[in-house]
Amino acid sequence: MTTAHGIQSxxxxxxxxxLLSAGVLLVAGRRADxxxxxxxxxxxxxxxxxxxxxxxSVKGEGNREINLHLYSWIPVAGFKVDAGLLIDPLSMVFVLxxxxxxxxxxxxxxxxxxxxxxxxxxxxxxxxxxxxxLLLVLANSYLALYVGWEGVGLASYxxxxxxxxxxxxxTAGNKAFFANRVxxxxxxxxxxxxxxxxxxxxxADVLYGDxxxxxxxxxxxxxxxxxxxxxxSGQFPLQTWLPDAMEGPTPVSALIHAATMVTAGVYLIARxxxxxxxxxxxxxxxxxxxxxxxxxxxxxxxxQDDLKRVLAYSTVSQIGxxxxxxxxxxxxxxIGIIHLVGHGFFKAALFLSAGSVMHAxxxxxxxxxxxxxxxxxxxxxxxxxxxxxxxxxxxxATGFWTKDKIIEAALDKGGTSGWVLGVVxxxxxxxxxFYMTRALVMTFHGxxxxxxxxxxxxxxxxxxxxxxxxxxxxxxxxxxxxxGGGLQHWLTPSVGPSVEEGVHTxxxxxxxxxxxxxxxxxxxxxxxxxxxxxVPISQPxxxxxxxxxxxxxxxxxAFNEMVLQRxxxxxxxxxxxxxxxxxxxxxTGLAAGFGGGSARLKRTQTGFVRSYALSMLGGTIAVVAVxxxxxxx
Length: 633
Known about the structure:
By secondary structure, this protein is mostly helical. It has 26 helices and two strands. Among the domains are: 296-341 and 351-540, no CATH class; 559-631. The chain has helices at residues 3-9, 13-27, 36-59, 89-112, 119-138, 142-160, 167-198, 203-208, 215-233, 241-244, 250-259, 264-271, 273-278, 280-301, 307-327, 333-360, 378-392, 398-412, 415-444, 461-482, 486-490, 492-495, 508-530, 545-551, 556-601, 609-631; strands at 66-76, 79-87. It has a two-stranded antiparallel ribbon. The N and C termini lie far apart (112 Å).
């Protein structure tokens, strides 16, 4: 056995090791409190080291694809499913992102959760999250992916509602759980259609097998996969759970938004590229969802005062960019994945620096109560600026190389739809620059607005070092992803060839200039609106309807409550009333009738002979009277 083959055959450890550590941490009890954080943080670091070795072993293979059979999972007569792992360029990108960024977030969490009584439970959930996300991206069939998909949903519920004694956290966890269940119905239906039509759920059979999917079947599968992706990635119309997920500890927010859960929907669509290539309708739906969510997240982000919620809405918007890219079809799938990886760098940096601010401000996160923090928290400020420059697409930062390529690909689509999508993407870039400038200015610049009991300071080294590493990646990550067509060419075996550099219908230089002008206007608008005048500590009176709508997430929660929750409540109440008054009423009424009748009938049983004689006499008279009436009729 060669060294490369030995490394590849041990890939199951990527899932088994964090599952084992999660089990140990969750059942060990309080005696593990002293070392639980060490084990919890060490496991993803070990996984990342192994993932790097696995990456180079796969890189040396001719087709860069290893299908690792583990065991026969469901050996039923007409339904056979083998448990196995697919190690290919697409899965390896996600493995490196999950373990690499995940390791930094775990190390950060050691300091962030240092004084939390539930730290052992937290790291148990955190390791479990890593395990099921790795199962999701390494599975070689849709059914195995579904196991990881549901595992991620459970992990997110446990972590979002980690502080379950607080009603708002418990409600946020339930909201995320229920929204994801809606999307999961779509994925499960898609899997059923695959088995009914293809007779298998493995990628090899469904995507590349002898049974060619017709346009109708591909459309049905594509729409159901899209529904699943919308639920997991917080896309329209299932996007409202994602901002509420901020109720979990900040490392949870960073892991969900940067490296794990919300990227699963993009992975699902990219992995299913052959299905969407057959159905133009399904691809169009993905593009529409991405464009709507892109603008939705930007508009809502402009109206939030909670720093973590601003970043959450920016995630909604950035995932919308990724959906837009993968929905554009052949040649653009890799561009969406490139932005996903770059987003993992700068969004983790932003969330961890926001967590540092929250940690220093006694768990306060309202930007109206900040201001002037760059003087007392220079490291956190520097990391936030790195993430800020990357997300707005500042020249040479990571977002400049990744997000701008999506705008370019949208315009290159041509026709009216191409221009509409390009304008939407450009508008999103300007709005992103506006609300991120607003967040930067309100948090770190201006006069100090914090209360007397707050003494902001830099966090411990276990928190600052991961932040610095992610800040650097936010600035230089684009070079690693783009130059030489590196990641695009690497992903070719999984998602097909990408559009070639230099072949565009729109001049790259002109488009870059236009994008930079739009971004500059957004930055200028944010600075003029919030950097040149005092920030109001309380909610200003008489704000515009647009601002009110942005603060209330464009009434998406109100709409869901009116259209989905209220009718469901009314239906439930009507069914309960029918059950109580109709079904139960008929049963209890019949029983009451027999009971009442028997109670009255037993009164005739007195035990006195004279009463019975009188009854017999009465009966005799009645019989004689009837006979006489019949006789003389």
